[in-house]
Specification:
Elements lengths: L4 E9 L2 E6 L2 E7 L1 H11 L4 E5 L11 H10 L4 E4 L5 H10 L3 E4 L1 H5 L2 H10 L4 E10 L2 E6 L4 E6 H11 L3 E6 L11 H10 L4 E4 L5 H9 L5 E4 L1 H4 L5 H10 L8
Parallel strand pairs: 1-4, 1-12, 4-5, 5-6, 6-7, 7-10, 10-11, 11-12
Antiparallel strand pairs: 1-2, 2-3, 7-8, 8-9
Helix pairs in contact: 1-2, 2-3
C-alpha cells in the first residue's frame, strides 16, 4: 500500500513565509529556510514552496531562496510561482527543486504541460489548480487566485493528466485558511476521475481533517500551512494519529 504524504507548504511573499484566509489577509509566518529545515527534521514527507506573487508581479521565482531551502532539507521539494518556460524549470531544478508546480502558465498555454513532461519527465511536473465554486460549478482561477477563468475544474484536471502532468495540487479557495476541513466532495471526484496523485490543499484545521481527506476525499497527499507554521499541529503527532486510524504513513 502506498503511504499517504503530509506536505507543509511555504507560501512566499517578499522572501518571507506568509499565510492568509481564502487567499487574502496575509500575515507573516516565519523564515522559509528555518521552517523548511524544521519540517524536514519533524518528518514531513515533502515540501512545497510557492512564490505566490511572482506571476502577479510578472517576475521569476526567487531562485536564490530556492537554493537556500534545498540546501537545508533532504526531502522532495516542489517549487511554483512565475514559471513559464523550459528555461525557468531548468533553473529551478539546478537550484535544487525536485518538481515544479505550474498554474497560470498552464492555463495560458496548455501545451507547456506537454513540453515540460517531454523535457523533464511527468514525475517532475505538478499542475496546481486553484478552484472556487462559482454559479453552481467549480472554476479554475489563476494569478494567485485573483483571476477566474472559463475552465471547469474537473475537466481541466482530466486535460492536464492527458497532457502529461504527474501530479495535481488541488487547492480549494473556498476552504483555504478556514480550518474547517478540506473540500472532500471535489477532491474525491477528481481523485476518481484521474489516475495521477492528487495533493489536497485548503482547509486543514484538525487531525481529523487529514483522516477525512485520505478516506472520504481519496487524496494521495495533504498539504497544509498555517496549522504547521503556528504550531497548532505537530507533524509527529499527526502521523501517529493517522497510523492509529489505519492510514498508511511514513514513520521515521
Amino acid at each position: 500500500m502506498l503511504t499517504k504524504r503530509i506536505i507543509p507548504c511555504l507560501d512566499i511573499k517578499d522572501g518571507t513565509t506568509v499565510k492568509g484566509v481564502n487567499f487574502l489577509n496575509l500575515r507573516e509566518a516565519g523564515d522559509p529556510v528555518e521552517l523548511a529545515r524544521f519540517y524536514a527534521e519533524q518528518g514531513a514527507d515533502e515540501l512545497v514552496f510557492l512564490d505566490i506573487t511572482a506571476t502577479v508581479e510578472g517576475r521569476k521565482t526567487l531562485v536564490e531562496l530556492v537554493r537556500r531551502v534545498a540546501y537545508a532539507i533532504n526531502i522532495p521539494f516542489t517549487v511554483g510561482g512565475g514559471i513559464g518556460s523550459i528555461a525557468d524549470v531548468s533553473a529551478l531544478l539546478r537550484a535544487g527543486a525536485d518538481k515544479v508546480s505550474i498554474n497560470s502558465a498552464a492555463v495560458r498555454n496548455p501545451d507547456l504541460v506537454n513540453q515540460l513532461a517531454r523535457e523533464f519527465g511527468s514525475q517532475c511536473v505538478v499542475v496546481a489548480i486553484d478552484t472556487r465554486f462559482i454559479s453552481g460549478e467549480h472554476r479554475v482561477h489563476t494569478h494567485g487566485g485573483r483571476q477566474p477563468t472559463e475552465l471547469r475544474t474537473v475537466a481541466w484536471a482530466k486535460e492536464v493528466e492527458a497532457r502529461g502532468a504527474g501530479e495535481i495540487l488541488l487547492t480549494s479557495m473556498d476552504t483555504d485558511g478556514t480550518k474547517n476541513g478540506f473540500a472532500l466532495e471535489l477532491t474525491a471526484r477528481i481523485s476518481a476521475d484521474v489516475s495521477i496523485p492528487i495533493v489536497a490543499s485548503g482547509g486543514a484545521g484538525t487531525m481529523r481533517h487529514f483522516e477525512e481527506v485520505f478516506t472520504t476525499g481519496r487524496a494521495d497527499a495533504a498539504l497544509a500551512a498555517s496549522i504547521f507554521h503556528f504550531k497548532e499541529i505537530a507533524l509527529p503527532e499527526l502521523k501517529a494519529f493517522l497510523k492509529e486510524k489505519h492510514i498508511a504513513v511514513r514513520m521515521d
